[in-house]
Amino acid sequence: MGKIDEMSVNAIRILAADSVQKANSGHPGLPLGCAAMAYELWANHMKHNPKNPKWVNRDRFVLSAGHGSTLLYSLLHLFGYGNLSIEDLAQFRQEDSLTPGHPEYGHTIGVEATTGPLGAGMGMSVGMAMAEAHLSSIFNKEGFPIVDHYTYVLGGDGCMMEGITSEVLSLAGTLGLSKLIVFYDSNNITIEGSTDIAFTEDVEKRMQAFGFQTIVVEDGNDLEGIGKAIQAAKAETNKPSFIIVKTQIGYGCPAKQCQASAHGEPLGVENVAALKENLGWEKQDAFYVPDAVYHHYKKIAEKKAEDETTWNGLFLAYSEKYPEMKTLWQQYFDNNALTDLLNKEEFWAYADKADATRNLSGIMINRIKDILPNFIGGSADLAPSNKTNMKDAGDFSKSNYSGRNIHYGVREIGMAAIGNGLALHGGLKTFVGTFFVFSDYVKPMARLASLMELPVTYVLTHDSIGVGEDGPTHEPIEQLAMLRAMPNFTVFRPADATETCAAWYYAITTAKTPTALVLSRQNLPQLKGASKEALKGGYVLADSNKAVPDGIIIASGSEVELAVNAKVELAKENIDVRVVSMPSIDVFEEQSDEYKESVLPKAVRGRVAVEAASDFGWGKYVGLDGAYVTMKGFGASAPAKTLFNKFGFTTENVVAVTKKVLKGN
Question: Considering its fold, how many domains does the chain have in total?
């Protein structure tokens, strides 16, 4: 290792240690151990341009072990990303800083994904690699490798233990994603001590079984060895690569090196001083980096910028030779091309017959795939049930990366993470699918999508006790409340075809919000009064003839039919109620106070909410004087009709509950 390289590696270590020490909080162990690995990759192998962090053909780097965020922040600062300054590093973990505790996409320039939950970055990296493979199969021509980049991801023992990592790397191996390169920071230490207390498997053999090329670097400070490993990984064109780099957590700090205490707490003032002395750092001043190091990084960054300049020339020649491909490229990367769908009759057309909203969603998916050439997605081994298969769109596979139907296998949390990666890469609109009850598996990665403002669509079918014979393990009760509680996440539970069209329209036109479409297994009628007003989240489906209704019945999904039928029966007793369909509480809450008052006037206190799920969250609309026809338990195993009767989802019960409420008012 040359002197300037050694100083450049140690600059990463020093900045990371000083950042954590000043914050008196953080994780210095990984940055100290992985600094050489990161430097070799970023300086000598990774294609990136600090002056244009969004260059479309850049290599991606994801820090799956997000607790080691100061490693990434130090790299971004030294390479000159977004003018991330020493002052920013000194504000690590402080309010409104650009250096939060874990990397946050969209907040700090150069961060490719929000990471922190271990293993999540592995999944998102697989999604990015899949996006690269798909886009390259669509756009590349002989002599014009327009989409040609690698995805690198760094994780440690914690990532390897999390089940999500096995899910996504198993699929990556099956798909032969040769431009995915995983770095394993193998230091045999976790928070509680040696990994031997809980983790003794042969990780290398596991990765080989998954279909990875595996490469071992015995010394985490051997730049030449790390470089050769990266070159070998790039040379493998049939399978992804897994580089095991044996590191020492807390490297360079005499009292902390190879100790569990180096993982998640500051080194301490004296130990930071000892680190600097041990590394031969010329000054003890906090955040000091020699000018020669900054100059070295600047020269590397300037050289990196040439890669984009070369690519820009290639793309210009490509556009001139293949103007139709340039037009297609613009379709893939233009996010504002769908607003005209609002008034296209063919988009909103449907057959006037009873149908399950999952079937109606399947029709919409096949309409959308003909409108959006970059629409890609699939289910966790449930496409026939979720109705997510796109006809004549091909299957994404090792032999056909141009396919648009993704077969995720039975890997829900992995699927959701990969969906995030597809969206993060850019150029694609994606959806994932499973049974609604299994949104429990999806939720952690959906939460990250919400944090990152990614417009991923979740097709969640079999939405209620209507699943019937499968029993309570498959009957979602609390899941609606769970997803509705998540910030920046939209849930639609449509009642018929019109509302299903509205839900899909919202999902594909929203720019920064993930959307869940919660869909029925059983057939539902097409409702008179259903309209595009569903795009407001809640609307008057069937109104009272009175200026002030006697009461209001609010429902979503399959239960809207019950509300309509109850209105008819109540009218026979001269009780005139309003029926409000509420396909999306989240969207309804975004409307003006005036609109919400026009739908749910405060003067009408007699209200009933009807939904075959938990009543949690409905209180704001029902109030103290209202009532619920909802679920109190987990359901049962029997035919759907039997269960709806058993749990009170009948016209007669809705009528009875409404009359009781109105009598009390």
Answer: 3
- CATH number for 434: 3.40.50.970
In whole angstroms, what is the distance from residue 367 CA to residue 382 CA?
A: 20
Q: How far apart are CA 82 and CA 76, in angstroms?
A: 8
Give the model's pLDDT for residue 114: 98
My answer on whether 578 and 506 are in the same domain is: no
Do 498 and 537 fall into the same domain?
Answer: no
Beta-carbon count within 10 A of 62 CB: 30
Q: Residue type for 100, please? A: P
Q: Where are the alpha helices (DSSP H) in 492-589?
A: 497-509, 559-571, 585-589
7-65 pLDDT, tens digit per residue, is: 999 999 999 999 999 999 999 999 999 999 999 999 999 999 999 999 999 999 999 99
Residues 455 and 565 in one domain: no
Residue 557 within a domain = yes
- Is 665's pLDDT higher than 80? no
What is residue 639's predicted lDDT score, i.e. its pLDDT?
96
Q: What is the reported pLDDT for 334?
A: 81
Q: CATH number for the domain including 620? A: 3.40.50.920
Domain that holds residue 629: 533-664
Compute CA distances 54 → 149, 483, 577, 599, 605, whole Å.
13, 31, 54, 44, 53
Q: Are residues 27 and 119 in the same domain?
A: yes
pLDDT for 71-80, tens place per residue? 999 999 999 9
Q: What's the whole-number average pLDDT of the chain?
A: 97
pLDDT digits (tens, 9 = 90+) for 228-249: 999 999 999 999 999 999 999 9
Contact 513, 489 (CB under 8 A): yes
Reported confidence tier of residue 337, pLDDT bands at 50, 70, 90: low
Q: Which of 305, 323, 353 is at the close of a domain? A: 305
Q: Is residue 322 part of a domain?
A: no
Mean pLDDT of 568-576: 98
Both 101 and 65 in one domain: the answer is yes
Q: Which of 104, 112, 412, 559 is catalytic?
A: 412
Distance CA 519, CA 495 (A): 9
> Rounded to the nearest 5°, which phi and psi values hold at 377?
175, -175
Residue 345 appears among annotated catalytic residues? no
Strand order in the sheet with 490-492: 405-407, 375-379, 429-435, 457-461, 515-519, 490-492
Average pLDDT rounded to a whole number, residues 315-331? 97
Residue-level length of the chain: 665
Same structural domain, 35 and 123: yes
